[in-house]
Amino acid sequence: MVACPAQPRAGRRTREKGEAAKAKSIGRILPELKEKSCISSMATAPLLRLVLVVSCIGSSMAVLFASLPNTLTVTASPAAGQGLSPFCVLFLFTISFLGYDMDVCVHDSVLHAGVDQIKVSWKLNESTPASADSSYKKVKVLLCYAPVSQVDRGWRKTDDHLKKDKTCQFKVTTQPYSSGGGGSFVYSVERKIPTGTYFVRAYALDSGDTEVAYGQTTNAGKTANLFDVVGITGRHASLDVAAGCFSAFSILALVFFFVVEKRKAKK
Fold it and tell me: Which InterPro entries match (predicted)?
């Protein structure tokens, strides 16, 4: 039998030293990796807690309309009975044919988009202490939908959370708040205002533009001192008047011929 030559002792010692060195390096690396993972987890945990705290604070700082005091008296002209359209009164039965909402012409005033103006005035309530407006820095005035123009219209829905509220979608003006709260602004009804029933609301803002108080031209139920806006439908006003006149004439003619035929039948 041929015996295998014995491996040199130097080669075995070299391999053993290499394996020992690898073991030592692995032993050093593992604690370092564990330490780094612990540090990263410790750094991530406060970050997550911070995010949760910020989200909780944000939700708790949400402004609710029900929490705002009514400290402003807001008025808007035309006053009741002014600006009432005779066309709407005489031809109410042709409103649906002419494209107007059925709730138009049944309130105090009728305005026309792109034509008429509203003078809005605001002041601090007489019953409110003078020091109550110390945090008021601005007054934001908005044109708001009345409940009758919100029915079956989710995009106009009222929400107590002001960031989600869609009642007041049209900005009238934002003015600096003067001492005593008195101020006014003449607003030209924009052409983009759709046909509907409206009221005016004013918010008092603090230095951070956060709503801290309000006032409006209507009552709490939003049923008084409302006004209507007739939006632009793409037709000229003279065409609407002519259509209304012809509609009224046709009805009168029908009644006239009916009476004539009845008299002939009696003879």
Answer: Transptr_NO3_Nar2
CATH topology of domain 65-242: Immunoglobulin-like (2.60.40)
Q: Is the pTM of this model over 0.70?
A: no
Using the 8-state DSSP alphabet, how is residue 181 labeled? S
* pLDDT tens column, 172-219: 999 999 876 689 999 999 999 999 999 999 999 999 999 999 999 999
Residue whose C-alpha is closest to residue 30's, from 19, 22, 18, 20? 22
Pair 92, 239: CB distance under 8 Å: no
How far is it, in rounded angstroms, from Cα 162 to Cα 214?
A: 12
Cα–chain center distance at 127: 29
Distance, in Å, from the CA atom of 9 to the CA atom of 207, rounded to the nearest integer, reads: 86
Angstrom distance (rounded) from CA 14 to CA 9: 9
Q: Which of 166, 146, 171, 169 is nearest to 156 (CA)?
A: 166
The three-state secondary structure class of 124 is strand
